[in-house]
Specification:
Length: 347
């Protein structure tokens, strides 16, 4: 397993990160433990979770269950120090946690205390802001994104106050590093600027969506990553399973994410099947498993710190982790580029 630096923190993380958002609904506690047991045998040292997980489906009743499963695994195995653990605080708008309150000093305190208790640990390696208070173009909102309603100074003040609140936890060792999620280049640049100006914690990573069919990160954020040593933690590198091909021709396998949310968070549209077909043909032409090709492609990107994979079965988990051993030839990458030119923004 290849290891990558996590920003400028001095921490190293596996290029495959074990995602957890199905644990507690689609996966039982025993299944979650089995996934963690297996992942660490392959060299994975990086787990990603969030206080709102599981999300398949998202529910107030199950909120926090995923973190609790990780906590019982730490308790059973004693392997907390072997894992770089990332979790997230919910942004504003989800009424199921703190009545949808925005991220701020009080909610940060409450969220950290809750996560530590569930995770059965006294520190978090990477603490991430799940989405910005001001809103985001992620979650398919890019089609109608309009930042003109944002108040610049209010946003900057909000970022500054947030960094100051997190600083106290970094200084006392409760948090080792901080990261963003569902952020933009401008937003990330403000976090970096304010941290430098006021001696506050520096952003180590950005967790945004990235896959063969969702490549917003290739432009401004890629430039920021290169110059500022803030790498991408890619979520949904399989586009919620679309890139496996299992949903082609309208198929909805029993127990799959599409059986829970038919639109897959807005990813499943009339435009997506032809694009998926194009990538499935590339994989078939080169004798590759399409799932592994999709993950391996993400790992070729120069800004990629880690690709966050998720699975609901052990067979799926073994397939996706094995993508670390797949090398894509220049011919494969060229064919991927041709497919992208035909279908540049299918979701």
């Amino acid at each position: 397993m290849k290891m990558k630096p996590l920003g400028r923190t001095g921490l190293s993380v596996s290029e495959i990160c074990l995602g957890t958002m199905t644990w507690g609904t689609q996966n039982s506690e025993d299944e979650a433990h089995e996934q963690m047991d297996y992942a660490v045998t392959t060299g994975v040292n990086f787990f990603d979770t969030a206080e709102m997980y599981p999300t398949t489906p998202l529910s107030t009743q199950t909120q926090g269950r995923t973190e609790a499963y990780i906590g019982t695994w730490f308790e059973r195995t004693g392997r907390r120090k072997d894992i770089i653990l990332a979790t997230k605080i919910v942004g504003n708008g989800f009424s199921g946690i703190r009545n949808g309150a925005p991220i701020g000093p009080d909610t940060i305190k409450s969220a950290i205390e809750g996560s530590l208790k569930r995770l059965k640990t006294d520190y978090i390696d990477l603490y991430q802001l799940h989405w910005p208070n001001r809103g985001s173009y992620h979650f398919r909102r890019n089609w109608h994104f309009d930042p003109t309603g944002q108040d610049k100074m209010r946003t900057i003040d909000d970022i500054h106050v947030t960094l100051e609140a997190l600083d106290a936890y970094v200084r006392n060792g409760t948090i080792r590093a901080i990261g963003l999620s569902n952020e933009s280049a401008w937003g990330t640049a403000q976090f970096l600027r304010l941290a430098e100006q006021h001696d506050l914690p520096r952003i180590a990573s950005i967790q945004n969506e990235y896959s063969l069919i969702c490549r917003h990160y290739d432009l401004d954020l890629a430039e920021l990553s290169h110059h500022e040593d803030v790498g991408l933690l890619a979520y949904s590198p399989l586009a919620a399973g679309l890139l496996t091909g299992k949903y082609q021709n309208g198929v909805i396998p029993e127990g799959s994410r599409r059986s829970i949310g038919p639109e897959l968070g807005g990813r499943y549209t009339p435009h997506v099947e032809p694009a998926i077909d194009a990538y499935l043909q590339v994989a078939a032409r080169h004798g590759l498993d399409p799932t592994q090709m999709a993950i391996a492609f993400c790992l070729t990107r120069p800004f990629m710190t880690s690709a966050i994979i998720g699975a609901t079965s052990m067979d799926q988990l073994k397939t996706v982790i094995s993508a670390k051993d797949v090398t894509l030839s220049q011919d494969v990458l060229s064919d991927i580029d041709k497919a992208r030119r035909r279908f540049p923004m299918p979701i």
